[in-house]
Amino acid sequence: LRRHEEFYLTGGDLFFLIEQNHFRVHRYFFERESQWFKLQLATPASPGATRQGTSESTAIVLDNVKAASFAKFLWVFYNPKYSLYKARVDDWVAIMELAHRWGFNEVMKLATREIEKLEMPDIDRIVAYHKFEIDRSLLLHRYAALTAREEPLTLEEGMALGMDTTLKIFRAREVARAIPAADGSRSPTSASLPAEEMQSLILDLF
User: Which InterPro entries match (predicted)?
Assistant: First the structure.
């Protein structure tokens, strides 16, 4: 076992053990932000037992969590640059996953705002937003882009999106290509819908 090089903090009053790494952080953030953790930490210890999470020997073990992902998650609270949150897309996705799992709603809002500023493939963004139950209105132009592009979804893309979303995309593409362009022509490969009509189509289907 080892103490995490960045997040074993002097004065911390909450201990976690993840992948042989001890984390020492502040209970305050977990009780304030997460109803799930608030309930977990409120569970009284059995008579005579030491309260869970108060020392290395009673550290809370978090299964199915990678130490690197947990460190990224903690960075949200201990960011030394205050309001400046600069991170890669993959980091924000990792943060989202833990925030969603434990009900850190404000962290989810922050991660969503930041990831909206970054470039991310449409398929990856749709998959992540669906998985973490993020407002789907943010995906309208992503659905529209997949509807308008010339190439149909690949097998791999369809498997990633899931059957429901894939069928809706195929239906949108079918409808968009059945509507004639301004000159009366139809194209089997490209959608020529005006922006307002495309948005209406996507709203109807999704």
Answer: BTB/POZ_dom, SKP1/BTB/POZ_sf
